[in-house]
UniProtKB/TrEMBL annotation:
GO cellular component assignments: cytoplasm
One family name in Pfam for this protein: Metallophos
Record carries keyword Cell wall biogenesis/degradation: no
PANTHER family, A to Z: METALLOPHOSPHOESTERASE DOMAIN-CONTAINING PROTEIN, PHOSPHATASE DCR2-RELATED-RELATED
The organism of origin for this protein: Daldinia eschscholtzii
Name of the protein in its database record: Calcineurin-like phosphoesterase domain-containing protein
Signal peptide interval: 1-17
Length: 414
């Protein structure tokens, strides 16, 4: 097993240190700040792996996109989120053309715009390819005033969708108040580099982990926020590709009652899979350890309750990472729940029933760093309803029924 050098994390901000990043750099234009409802709740709907734009030249490709729009509409009819998160693989980039690879964004966000909803995105490995890039998707998103997606780490190697969003009390009319909740968004990259080919005329691969520069930004920005507001603020995080810790937790065994959800993608595909510790990606290594700094950060930043991922379409469970795991060097300083969503789009592999994970934050439960979560399926059914609290992992819940979608017009690549 190959591992990179461990990073020493420091969470006490120096008063004399000049900030490298501006903690007030969270301008959202005319949208206004995200706020809790007057009843003290804030709900998030997470759509994973929509995979729009597959095989537009075949009948089944556009039909999949029509079905995916239907899923979004069905979920939003049943739920009332204050924010929609599009958590990676919005588009199947390898099927896109340079001239129109990002136009699918308009189709994705149509149901949100119709309802006056606001959204924030992370980008996944299929959002990066020869004819598409995170920056191009972001530019398309910004045509819509409802988008809160932004780029706070202006480093080309860092990917695009690295930023945070504060959520304020309902009585706060501007960002002069201390936030009640912070949402972190990370770009796990992957896929291929935009408009680049090697000497063999093949696409050039891109690293598939959260870059070290983003980890530094996360740690320092969190320190600055703690210093600015004088408290630890509860937070949630979103990234498309799961960490290696999820891979090891899965090997430890997913209990269908303690960690309800489907577990069909076993083993799952974590960040840095197939890379070597020296940066080679030639098929000679299983895992390079490049996500170790990111794992150290998410498990050490106080107040981070959960990290939500997609990528593995056949996994929908949450698992509390609260101990040093076999074959790992990172021991979490704070418990953090590592969660998968539900495959939301009809594009991409697998025929598990489509749906979207919901997260409900209430001010009363946030006082104990707890949130509730469940999955709303396209059928209208709710599965996997759990409370991510101090006893999660010991509490018992009903097992999740592994329902499948029947779609004769769809192409299943499984």
């Amino acid at each position: 097993m190959f591992f990179t050098t461990l990073v020493i994390l420091t969470f006490v901000a120096s008063i004399d240190a000049k900030p490298l990043f501006n903690v007030n750099n969270n301008s959202i234009g005319s949208l206004g700040p995200l706020t809790f409802k007057r009843d003290g709740t804030f709900q998030i709907s997470i759509f994973e792996d929509l995979h729009f734009g597959e095989n537009a030249w075949d009948q089944w490709g556009p039909q999949q996109d029509i079905n995916s729009v239907k899923v979004i509409n069905e979920i939003l009819e049943a739920e009332s989120p204050g924010l929609v998160v599009l958590n990676g693989d919005l588009i199947t980039g390898e099927n896109g053309f340079l001239e129109n690879s990002t136009v699918y964004i308009d189709q994705i966000v149509g149901p949100l715009v119709d309802r006056g909803l606001t959204w924030a995105s992370t980008y996944g490995n299929h959002d990066y390819d020869f004819n598409i890039s995170g920056s191009a998707i972001l530019a398309r998103e910004k045509r819509w005033s409802n988008s809160r997606t932004t780029q706070m780490v202006p480093n080309e190697e860092a990917g695009t969708s690295n930023y945070y969003l504060p959520v304020y009390d309902s009585g706060c009319s501007d960002n002069s108040c201390a936030p009640e909740l912070i949402l972190w968004f990370f770009d796990s990259r992957g896929g291929f580099r935009y408009q680049q080919k090697d000497e063999s005329n093949k696409r050039v691969g891109q690293p598939d982990w959260v870059d070290f520069s983003v980890v530094n930004w996360f740690i320092q920005t969190n320190n600055e926020l703690v210093g600015k507001y004088g408290k630890i603020t509860p937070s949630l995080a979103f990234v498309h590709i799961p960490t290696y810790a999820s891979y090891i937790l899965q090997k430890e065994g997913v209990d269908p009652h303690a960690e309800p959800g489907i577990n069909d993608d076993n083993p799952l595909a974590p960040q840095a899979q197939g890379w070597c510790s020296d940066g080679r990606n030639d098929g000679t290594c299983d895992y390079g350890g490049q996500d170790i700094p990111f794992m150290q950060a998410i498990s050490a930043v106080p107040g981070l309750m959960a990290l939500f991922s997609g990528h593995d379409h056949g996994n929908t469970w949450c698992y509390k990472w609260d101990r040093l795991l076999p074959n790992m060097t990172v021991a979490p300083l704070n418990d953090v729940n590592l969660c998968f969503g539900q495959h939301s789009g009809y594009g991409g592999y697998g025929n598990w029933e489509r749906g979207a994970r919901q997260v409900l934050a209430t001010k009363s439960k946030l006082a104990n760093f707890e949130v509730d979560t469940w999955i709303r399926l396209e059928s209208g059914n709710v599965v996997g309803s759990v409370s991510l609290n101090s006893t999660y992992g010991r509490d018992l819940y009903p097992a999740t029924n592994n329902s499948k979608t029947h779609c004769p017009t769809c192409h299943y690549d499984s």
